[in-house]
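On clarity, I found the account of how folds are encoded harder to follow than it need be. What matters is that the chain and its backbone geometry are given together, residue for residue. For the editor and my fellow referees, an illustration may be useful. For illustration, here is how one protein appears when written out as sequence plus structure tokens:

___
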Amino acid sequence: MKKLILCLLTATLALAASQLIKLRADEPSTFQTVEFATIRWDGRENTYLIRPNAKVDKFKQVFEKAPPRPDGIDDRAYYLNIAMNAMAKEGFDFAGMTQDQIVMKRAVTRQ
């Protein structure tokens, strides 16, 4: 009887240990944690946003609602600033830029 109990106890401990090792050995989650959007400058009339879902939106209407650009201020800098602030309202943060593109990112919430 002692051998049976000892055998069951050993099997139970071995099973528990294997489950614990298995949990720790799992790969880290590969779930996407960040998504990116790109603002592409192509003049005031044609600047657009490529959203993470590949939908493209133009900023023309956003720019039309903005205050007029002050004299002596660069078009590109003024309107890209407005575009970045519009994206920040949606939870995006600056991630990087090139001459004519600004990349914005935001954390993806798990559902």
Observations:
- The first helix runs from residue 2 to 25.
- Residues 34-107 form one domain.
- The CA atoms of residues 36 and 105 lie 4 Å apart.
